[in-house]
């Protein structure tokens, strides 16, 4: 270890950022951290000023998800910091290693009710993996380093809370080397039991989750699937966990996922859940298929032991790294007789048949067919959302990154998003906040500037997030936003249609021209009315990205609505008071 050196706490902080390879910090300028900000450029750090701190934390999240490195953001104590809350919760559920730096009101006035004061640790206590509080300026380097280590080790947000007077002074500090600890494959006996189950399987199926992406385990997942002749399903919203063009790839499970994946996993006698917590929403019945194979033996491998057996009963739990565990299973299975070997060819042709059936169904599924959708589409000249999504899918360039928001059309897009490599799809994960996709893709683009970057956003969610167009224009960040203009908060309207006899409350939107708004911000804006214009518009927007130009493609679509997310969540209203008698 290097001997301690004299420096200021701001220098200790900034040197720790540099030691962790930080090159971008997102935020809004504030007096609280100016002393550190001042020396960012000399440390090779670009401060990316945003429009709203929620944008900063989402950008840090997108940056981390695209790169696998830390995403970092900073805000003024009090209101700047509280603006982080939603984004921290989203990053928590996306398993993003973000470090968010929260200068706090000064230590000598804390508790007196001064300016911009709030207790900043309790607010984040349930949505962080680690909270570091600098309780003495002499500990700045140590605690900052721990935040970076924990965010990476536990894959989630770490808070670095710093009383604002602690940026100043003279300290002796050593800048720590980042601590990187490999997790390993997990318990040998559990892996052996898993291998035995897989060897005895007649219809094994893999579920590739976010852990495959985070552990860079794609090659091992492919090898294992090929060894077993097993279909591979992506876990919900991780369509980039396994290459879509691979013969064994069956597509995503979950809401608006692939019927092929669902029909195949329904047949499984052994399921290998690799790097997935099998979250409750990821395996909900879909398309009328209650596909989860309740009789199957389930092997679950996860880096977080608390996820093992939490949602689905399992036969074997392995607390390990997805890549190391998959490699261990490959070794354990090599040369072992496999009960499923004889039926391998039949399985492969079954997989191929289910996939082509689903492809044909998707191609023919040009619009929704429920009475509400047929009615609204009949009186509209706009594009059917599904046709538009299909056209987008076909036009998306290879190697692209796509973020998706929360909404009906974004959810239907799940059927039309396929990727060849990991770190390509950044959906709003379990926290499910509208307004996630756009700032996230901005952060991803800064992490991977050469990759074409697209955000899919509903028009309602766009109203929450379009302020970051300012950031794109000012900072020359070139991304493409596809805004689905159906003039409604569609996903929620679907509940009014299905459960509340179409009594609409706050779901209809009156939009400005979103293309004109984009132009007013100094970005490009294009209104797309016809299906034939979708692909050319997308390609032109993708080209503009290399000039640092952001384009908003405003897709004019009908108001038809796909299946709701949660049939389980609502029930028909029951009223007891006379006054509300008709509200059923
Ligand atoms: C921050 C936030 N507020 C409210 C919701 C509830 N919500 C879920 S989906 C949805 C509607 C989304 O509408 P839009 O973005 O227009 O997409 P569409 O459903 O029309 O495709 C709303 C309001 C949410 N998920 N997040
Ligand atoms: Mg909408």
Tell me what you see in this structure.
- The protein is of the alpha/beta class and 584 residues long.
- The model has no long low-confidence stretch (mean pLDDT 97).
- It is built from 21 helices and 20 strands.
- It is 36% helix and 16% strand.
- The strands form 4 sheets. It has a 6-stranded parallel sheet with strand order 3-2-4-5-7-6, sandwiched between helices. Strands 11-10-9-12-13-14 form a 6-stranded parallel sheet, sandwiched between helices.
- The termini are far apart.
- Bound molecules: thiamine diphosphate and magnesium ion.
- Magnesium ion (MG) binds at residues 407, 458-460, 484, 486, 488-490.
Which structural class should the secondary elements be placed in?
alpha/beta
Measure the end-to-end span: 71 Å
Present as ligands are:
thiamine diphosphate, magnesium ion
* Quaternary assembly: single chain
Morphology: globular
The radius of gyration computed from the alpha-carbon positions, rounded to a whole number of angstroms, is 25 Å
Q: State the total count of DSSP E strands.
A: 20
Q: How large is the count of helical segments?
A: 21
Largest sheet: 6 strands, parallel
Strand order of the largest sheet: 3-2-4-5-7-6
Mean pLDDT: 97
Proportion of beta-strand residues: 15-25%
